Amino acid sequence: MTPEMERAHATLRELVDARSVGTVEAQRQAYVEWAGQFPVPAETVVEPWEFGVWVRTPESEPDRVVLYLHGGAYRLGSPGTHRALMAGVASAARAEVAFADYPLAPEHPFPAAVDFARDAYVSLLDRFAANRIAIAGESAGGGLAVALLLRLRDEGLPLPAAAAVNSPWVDLECTGESMATRASRDPMLSRAGLLAAATEYLAGKASPLHPYASPIYGDLTGLPPLLVQVGTEEILHDDAVALAARAGARLIVVQDAPHVWHYFTSWLPEARDAVRAMGEHILAATR
């Protein structure tokens, strides 16, 4: 493992420590403070949007957009945790990024996030042709991105041109073998922690097998071109592999990478490669 990759693992352990105590509000603030270490390019523009924030860089083209759905186990994450990453996606995809600040559990359990993402996407159809829209996300947001695709297809709405997900959590029952085989290697996630977050998100009312909660259990046919990326050190490794296989998606597995390693573009080459791959996938589909 390279020194840079070891640093990525250590940085994620710092995040776990920072958000392991206190109320959920304190944990959310700790996440924002941790994310403050990542530089946002000076020319990045962040503006309010009725569903979150709008992010653009000098490379962004005004007729292409990426709807981004963030991770955080459906209970954490905000514009303040993802601005640097959104700037990277905007530049790589040569698109504007519509960051959806969806409602979080436990205050807003399933299906609130799916409903919000659906409404955010429909609002984009008023401004962009569907073939100029892509959907992206990481971790829980990766699962939400796939769930959104299923819902849009089920409702007969125009589908986006492409989707790209990193480290997606698509099985809220956490049945993949990597939940055990990679437990000692993942610096950030645990099966127990994910199951607790799933219980909170579902609020004891919805089934973890619902395809809009765990899209791996849904019909994954007829979706737009999908790119799935995952690291070898993740307990979510098998979620990604299963998703790619069942959806006929392109899969990239990154050696030694931990959960959501693409955060670290300022110093990790593999993170820059991951964001570049997202951008190339989106750009090729939305030309």
UniProtKB/TrEMBL annotation:
**InterPro entries, per database record:** AB_hydrolase_3, AB_hydrolase_fold, GDXG_lipolytic_enzyme, Lipase_GDXG_HIS_AS
Tell me the keywords, alphabetical order. Answer: Hydrolase
Kindly list the GO molecular function terms attached to this UniProt entry.
triacylglycerol lipase activity
Sequence ranges assigned to domain Alpha/beta hydrolase fold-3 in this UniProt record: 66-261
Q: Matching Pfam families, A to Z?
A: Abhydrolase_3
Similarity-based family? Belongs to the 'GDXG' lipolytic enzyme family.
Q: Spell out the PANTHER family in the cross-references.
A: AB HYDROLASE SUPERFAMILY PROTEIN C4A8.06C, ACETYL-HYDROLASE LIPR-RELATED
What protein am I looking at?
Answer: Acetyl esterase/lipase
